[in-house]
Amino acid sequence: MGTNNSKRKNKSKKSKKTTKKKTKISFKKARKKNFLPTYEIYPTIKWSQIRIKNLIQKKKLAPIFPPEDDPTETFSIECPICNYFFPITNMTNCCKKPICTECYLQIVPFGTPNQPTTEQCPWCRHYNFSVIYNESLRNKFENEILLSQEDCDQKLELEKEASKNEREEFEKQRSKTILKLLEIKKKEEEEGEYERLKIDQEKNEERERIKQLFREQKNNQEQIDKDNLERIQQLENMPRDPNTLLTQFLSNAGVMDLGRREQLLNFVLQATNQQQN
Ligand SMILES: [Zn+2]
Ligand SMILES: [Zn+2]
User: Does the keyword Transmembrane belong to this entry (predicted)?
Assistant: First the structure.
């Protein structure tokens, strides 16, 4: 036992260094691990993992927790062998001292926790060392877990509610923005339509103006043509006296175009030839 004890102390010191970083493991994490062994205090253990798991599940042994260096509200029970704090431990049957599961597993190499063994109690040196897992402590601990779980659920619910409200607010703002954009677009389209109509109207007016101008020009030309024809007819009906024709021609030549002038000149020449013949 003596050699075992000193060995344990050395191992305990070594492991203390590594566990210090891990001391802030939460209840929730411990719960997630389903109270399964983490073996943080001693690097080796003689028991098989399956056997330990079984004993913990059958509530013959306390769950194994990541140990705390200092007592907290939850990790309030000190194991007097390893001096770590736990939320719950086993209890020696002989002298009713707390003992953590990892320490128990080091002292007793095999067997059933609540059955007498050949080992001695490390405190009262009583033979047939055995431990019992304290139900009332377990219940207390489970209640705390439940409470902390409830607290978590409540917080989660509140967070969900808050994010839902946020989401709703966001949706509201989004639909507002979309409506505004649609309105602007509609207005722009309406304005565009109005502009288009205005341009069409202007184009039509311009087209009408040009048409009117053509009509006027055509009428003018027709009038001019008519006037010229009348003059030609007047000349044709006149006596074929070359002198009179020439006078007539000269008096009209200024307002006639070239074709008409030539036509008239031919008449004059014809009339002169006829007279000479
Ligand atoms: Zn211990
Ligand atoms: Zn004892």
Answer: no
Residues measured by CB to lie within 5 Å of ligand 2, the ion: 92, 94-95, 121, 123-124, 126
Place of tokens 């983490």: 38
Around ion ligand 1, residues with a beta carbon closer than 5 Å are: 79, 81-82, 100, 103
Segment 18-24 long-range contacts (CB within 8 Å, at least 24 positions apart)? 19/66, 19/67, 19/69, 20/69, 22/66, 23/66, 23/67, 23/68, 23/69
Q: Is 111 exposed, middle or buried (0-12, 13-18, 19+ CB in 10 A)?
A: middle
C-alpha to C-alpha distance for 60 and 52, rounded to whole angstroms: 10
pLDDT of residue 145: 54
pLDDT at 45: 79
Distance CA 106, CA 19 (A): 18
- CA–centroid distance, 70 to ligand 2, in Å, is 25
Q: Cα(138) to centroid of ligand 1, in Å?
A: 17
- The ligand minimizing its distance to the Cα of 62 is 1
**65 CA distance to ligand 2 middle (Å):** 23
Q: How far is the CA of 80 from the centre of ligand 1 (A)?
A: 6
Ligand nearest the Cα of residue 64 is 1
What confidence tens digit (pLDDT) does each residue in 16-73 have? 444 444 444 444 454 444 444 456 677 777 888 888 888 888 888 888 888 888 988 8
* Cα separation, 89 vs 61, whole angstroms: 8
Residues 6+ apart with CB under 8 A from 70: 85
| Complete DSSP assignment for 218-273 | HHHHHHHHHHHHHHHHHHHHS---HHHHHHHHHHHHTTS-HHHHHHHHHHHHHHHH
Counting ligands in written order, the one closest to the CA of 97 is: 2
Q: Identify the nearest ligand to the CA of 65 by its number.
A: 1
